[in-house]
Amino acid sequence: MEAVRTAAEGTTASNTKEVKAFGTEAADAPLNQMHINRRTPTPHDVEIDILFCGVCHSDLHTARSEWGPSLYPCVPGHEIVGKVVRVGGHVSKFKVGDMVGVGCMVDSCRECQYCQEGLEQYCEPGMTGTYNSPDKHLPGNPTFGGYSESIVVDEHFVLRIPDNLDPAAAAPLLCAGITTYSPLRHWNVGPGQKVGIVGIGGLGHMGIKIAKAMGAQVVAFTTSESKFDEAKRLGADEVVLSKDAEQMAAYRGTLHFVLDCVSAEHDINAYLALLRVDGSLALVGAPEHPLPVAAFSLIPGRKSFAGSMIGGIAETQEMLDFCAGHNIPADIEMIDIQQINEAYERLLKGDVKYRFVIDMASLKQ
Ligand code: NAP
Ligand code: ZN
Ligand code: ZN
Question: What is the pTM of this model?
Answer without folding.
Answer: 0.95
